[in-house]
Records
---
Amino acid sequence: MAKSAKEVFQKLEQGIQANLQEVSEINGTFQFLITPEEGSRVEVYVNLKDQPGLAWEKRDAECVIIAKESDFLLVYEGVVPGFKAVMSGKLKVGGRLDLAAKLGEVFEKAKAKD
């Protein structure tokens, strides 16, 4: 199980690079704002369009996902379904909800590297 959001995003970067063609078919950009129990907020931009990859500086995105780190990790690991986390308010999604629904397949590719 991932211990931190930073670890998840490092694995996600590996999964994206290993599956460039598949992830570029998602055709979207994401901004993750993850708040850990301690320390500063993790802010990551994920491009799954023309040049798939991650950036750690702020950029515009079509889908914004906001969560506490503990809730984000539960969704990433599949312990809590994403839609349930959204409905309960543990995961906030702004912008294009259709892109948020597709993110699970990217997480699956990244987890294959565990």
---
Amino acid sequence: MEERIEHAREILKEIHHVPVATVNQDGTPHNSPVFMAFDDKLRGYWASRPDSLHSRNIARNSHVFMVIFDSKEGHGGLYIAAEAKALDDPKQAGKGHAILRRLKEQFYGSMGELDAYLGEATQRIYCAVPQKIWVNQSERDANGIITKDARYEIPLEILLPRL
């Protein structure tokens, strides 16, 4: 289990573009990649327009599924079933903004002040709170050939206090 927990930590530190899967009004799936930053409770924060399709889907149905995937062969991924919402409360949005801003500025420069994400602004800070987490890992034979690729659930109570 410790190896899987460590693998999950590595993925979260290295990968920041996360596809967020939502459900369209007609029941079909929709997936949107967003730049995401995580806090110590594994809550994921991103900024989006409230009129974008994934944001409208979240307003109607808060269930989302995220895949944080290391694209190097056999390095697996992290899967998160979560509940997501726009943060309209200035205190909650401020926390999410600060976490997202620290990371985003490392890659893209300033994302602006909090007031650019509240009230009549064109974007909002969103938060996804994890409900279940799995790590994907491959097993190889003596020749290095992948023989099994499986998901293993990591109980939140084990993963979260250790981050």
---
Amino acid sequence: MAAEIFVHPQALVESVEIGAGTRVWAFAHVMAGAIVGADCNIGDHAFVESGATIGDRVTIKNGVMVWNGVTIEDDVLFAANVFIADGTHGMARGDVAYKYQGIERVAPVHIERGAWIGQNVMLMPGVRIGAFAVVGANSVVRDDVPGSCVAVGTPARVIRRWDAGTERWLAVEQAPRPGSNA
């Protein structure tokens, strides 16, 4: 671990792959085998599991858990208490040993460059958040969010998209509700 890294005395950092300028705050845990880029900020009570990959200039606020199989590209912001669901099977049966017997338990989550994930968002296994997308607070993301879009709600749905031609946010037309005459 480089000397330019700040690790709070109450944090636990086991990984040796931490980039220069990164700060890890109290009660955070970064496991061996996790990769964390340069100039990141990992808040209090955050957890980064072995096999997680975090790019440069990523902010992970308090209470965020980043599991094995999660890839976070550069310049991403995770607000406080974002939850990433980390498995698709095994745990629901209560068979804890099952997940350690070489059977893949992770549906990878991928967060592309520049995305912003709001407070208390839940990301379900296997989702991809596109570059520069914004996910609003308290949303539950079950499906991929395209780049340069804003998604909100439970389940999250795209409500705006960035139009590079006009350099404006455009509303996304809503599909008619089932049973309506529209």
